[in-house]
Write a structure and sequence with these properties.
Elements lengths: L3 E4 L2 H6 L10 E5 L13 E6 L5 E7 L13 E6 L2 H5 L14
Parallel strand pairs: 1-2
Antiparallel strand pairs: 2-5, 3-4, 3-5
């Protein structure tokens, strides 16, 4: 289990983890198929999720990169690099995300 922030507004979705020195837990960005790390200060890991929140890809991205879109993705989780290994997640796993109202 990990703490999960949710980027709820358009501005929060566009900003993602930009401007942060670190992250504990992760950030869920819905309606997202592609991310970049331009302006980031640390490596991140991006978990691409389909409609059922199944992991369709996991990518480690250093700062200053533009990722390619994953057309089957409907949302992403951004976290510090190595998060999926710490959490025991891999492509094909389905996440149980519980959001507070």
């Amino acid at each position: 289990m990990a703490s999960l922030e949710v980027a709820r507004t358009r501005s929060e979705r566009r900003r993602g983890l930009l401007g942060r020195d670190d992250v504990t837990g992760a950030l869920l960005i819905e309606r997202c198929r592609c991310v970049h790390t331009i302006g980031m200060s640390f490596d991140i890991e991006v978990l691409f999720l389909d409609r059922q929140r199944r992991v369709v890809d996991v990518v480690r991205m250093p700062p200053g990169r533009i990722g390619r879109p994953r057309l089957s993705a409907r949302s992403v989780i951004e976290a510090r690099a190595g998060a999926s290994e710490r959490w025991g997640l891999a492509v094909g796993d389905t996440l149980d995300v519980r959001l507070d109202a």
